Amino acid sequence: MSSMYEENTQGDCSLNKVTELEQKIRLIRVEIDLIQQKCPHVLEPHVLKDGEKLGHKRCPKCEKYYNGWWCEKSPTTFCDYEQDDGKYDEDCCRYCGAPSERK
Q1: How far is CA 16 from CA 8, 19, 24, 86, 102, in A?
Q2: Left, alpha or beta for 86 (phi > 0: left; psi -120 to 50: alpha)?
Q3: I need a labelling partner for 24 at 20 to 30 A (CA). Which of 32, 38, 83, 102 fits?
């Protein structure tokens, strides 16, 4: 039994086949997004050698990637630089006060 890749490398470079495969990819991405939306994510900080908590990596349950600075005071567990007045201050997390560049 040959794989889909082997079948497609034997001369079939039609636009229809490419379009069909792109549609399959889109459907798979939608399915992944739905799974990740329903996941009760397990988020732990990535701890650097010096003990600083860098942020999240991936949820081990659904592989959703997160990036940001860990903030134990924030309801999202990420630092948030949008202030209460709506202004953005990258030097001061509204919850823990830490700067975006982390000293």
Answers
A1: 12, 5, 12, 48, 50
A2: left
A3: 38
Residue written as token pair 């991936």: 58
pTM equals 0.51
- Please write the tens of the pLDDT for every residue from 86-96: 898 888 899 98
Handedness of CA 28, 31, 35, 37 (dihedral sign): positive
Give 44-71 pLDDT, tens digit per residue: 777 777 776 666 677 888 988 877 788 8
Interatomic CA distance for residues 45 and 7, integer angstroms = 44
- The amino acid present at 69, given as its one-letter code, is W
Under a CB-based contact definition with an 8 Å cutoff, are residues 94 and 72 in contact? no
